[in-house]
Amino acid sequence: MKIIVDAMGGDFAPKAAVEGAFLAMREFGVETVLVGDKREIETCIKQIDPAGNKADKGHLLYDIVHTTQAVTMEDDPARVIREKKDSSLVVGLTLLRDGFGDAFVSAGNTGALLSGATLITKRIRGIRRAALSPVIPNKEGGALLVDCGANAECTPEYLMQFAFMGSYYVNRMLNIEKPRIGLLNNGTEAGKGTQLQRDTYELLQAAHEAGKLNFIGNVEARSVLLGGVDVVVTDGFTGNVLLKGIEGTAMFLMGELKPIFKRSAKTKVAALLVRSGLMGLKAKLDVSEHGGTALLGITKPVIKAHGNSDAKTMRSAIRQARELAQSGIIEDITANIDAIKLKQTDGE
Amino acid sequence: MKIIVDAMGGDFAPKAAVEGAFLAMREFGVETVLVGDKREIETCIKQIDPAGNKADKGHLLYDIVHTTQAVTMEDDPARVIREKKDSSLVVGLTLLRDGFGDAFVSAGNTGALLSGATLITKRIRGIRRAALSPVIPNKEGGALLVDCGANAECTPEYLMQFAFMGSYYVNRMLNIEKPRIGLLNNGTEAGKGTQLQRDTYELLQAAHEAGKLNFIGNVEARSVLLGGVDVVVTDGFTGNVLLKGIEGTAMFLMGELKPIFKRSAKTKVAALLVRSGLMGLKAKLDVSEHGGTALLGITKPVIKAHGNSDAKTMRSAIRQARELAQSGIIEDITANIDAIKLKQTDGE
After folding, report:
1. Contact map slice: A 302-341 vs B, CB within 8 A
2. Degrees, nearest 5: CA angle A92-A98-A100
3. Which of A226, A237, A274 sits opposite B186 (nearest CB)?
4. CA-based nearest residue in chain B for residue A154
5. How far is B253 from chain A (nearest CA, A)?
6. Per-residue pLDDT of chain B (348 residues; tens, 9 = 90+)
7. Is the interface score ipTM higher than 0.90?
8. Between the CA of residue B262 and those of A262, A273, B255, B258, B279, what are the distances in Å?
């Protein structure tokens, strides 16, 4: 199993990416291809193993593919592919397409990764749009949110495809036999929402009645946190607002807890007494434990790691990429594509 | 100042509504009109003052208006006005319209309250849609979210009107001189979002350039919690998802804290040591401190209290209704209506 890593993407590149790759190679026995500025990557490697990495080189297998450009967060996603052909992102995706690795991990510009994956690695035939689908930690463990921002404007067919892809993902990656699929809405009753939700509801209900999907109906945003649903289907605009609202609330509340524990000598004692519990909660919410966000609908496994990923998070994202490559989800989608696209829009 | 109270609305009606009205009368010196089943209301009053309420009756001023029907959460909002003419909700709004009180408070069916307020009390001339606008507690104190669920489908003009109404509300109710207006979006750059956000952005920017609104551009959902914005403008579908996502996250996190403090004798000691701090945080998040949600755009003040309101929450909602009635917000909207509607859609 060989994972291609965008060494130049993310706030702490290339250090976090290279260190993360080394952690992953040691812990999970994967091989990696580090794509980026060769000199910078080698400097990072020297820091990891000042003795010249000889001890490691014996069993760690990695290649460096040198590139001269880096995609920044300010780059226009639509122009990156044409104008930064020798960037780590474009070269990495091209290596993936051409079979020089089994999956691609990047903490770089999300929009550029999306359009790069769509244009270079391509969508699975019949899939209309790729979707970003993070696992949101919740009361029951977690729920998959599809789409969380790849597609601001969606059709009912896109959402139906998100539902199928999310179902396969949760089934294979989280080992849930019949994932409960919910349509994110402003109420649980049928008929709620805008035309998009009403039309999508009918498609999902039909797939449910045909025995192809375990659709449980409309769900409210509360359920994403409190449980009862495994895959939450929504357009990328709403999904993005919800995701950032959840992140903001968690940051706000955790921030409010700090001064409560720092108020006095007494409360500082309290902090020590519940330290392990609070650390456990922090770990549960911590994105670095979960890795990154899968880009579903692409012909090859692509993982978007958070822009502020550290080495540990990159390590988790590489592990997730390996699991995704082994999972068989892409094969599931390909094998069932006739059931998960609408006949009338068949011409691509 | 006389507040009309829907005694039959909410999960704990009529007890919570009647007790809340008595708390408000004692604490804030308001008069109330209690609308609902006279016998049930009187039973509640007897429980509040078993001696026959004589001591209070001297200075507490309230009327009871008897009604024979109650609106349930299952009632179809569109049919309530026609089919439950003698419900506390319909009678209460009619009393408000006819000047028998200065504001109306209900913890009942939100949809029925919305359509009742629109059909009976009417929208302000020129306002296209009324909006539900709760204050979300955050790092800076709070931000107003307009709309949080009254209108799933919106036009740019609706959103522009929400911005103006929200600005007046925050100015008058939260004493902020030039409220910062943000458009909820999936990124801060101009051009983000769907067509609705892009078109609304232009309207708000034009209002800003004309010096009529302090528009600060697109904001992400994180800002609602972390601050930097006073009024967050969005369609009711997205606003509802965000509101319930925030509520769910807060419930999830507070729920996760409990077992951490209950784990052992040691952690129970810790709980005692930080008790007051945690209570303070709980109060900050507690809707019962904040009262209810204003329905903006109606000719008279209407407050929607949360369905699970207890007496204390009803009391706060009545206080908020009094403040809203005294604020001059409706006068602000009426006086500026020419600036806050689009010329081309002027015919109503």
Report:
1. none
2. 65
3. A237
4. B194
5. 8
6. 999 999 999 999 999 999 999 999 999 999 999 999 999 999 999 988 766 555 555 578 899 999 999 898 888 888 999 999 999 999 999 999 999 999 999 999 999 999 999 999 999 999 999 999 999 999 898 999 999 999 999 999 999 999 999 999 999 999 999 999 999 999 999 899 999 999 999 999 999 999 999 999 999 999 999 999 999 999 999 999 999 999 999 999 989 888 888 888 888 888 888 888 888 888 777 666 677 999 999 999 999 999 989 999 999 999 999 999 999 999 999 999 998 988 765 444
7. yes
8. 21, 11, 12, 6, 16
Bridge-partner residues for B295, per DSSP?
Answer: B132
Tell me the residues of chain B between 159 and 188 that have a Cβ less than 8 Å away from chain A. Answer: 184, 186
Distance from CA of A258 to the nearest CA of B (A): 10
What's the burial of A175, exposed, middle or buried (CB within 10 Å: 0-12/13-18/19+)? exposed
> Tokens at residue B5, please?
């109270």
- Type of residue at B238: T
Phi, psi of A299 (to 5 degrees): -70, -20
Q: Return the structure tokens found at A99.
A: 């079979």
Backbone angles phi, psi at B130, to 5 degrees: -80, 150
Instruction: Indicate the SS3 state at residue B11.
Output: coil
3-state helix, strand, coil in chain A (%, to 5): 50, 15, 35
- Give the C-alpha separation, B16 to B40, whole Å: 12
Interchain contact, A277 vs B255, CB within 8 Å: no
CA distance B36 to B67: 5
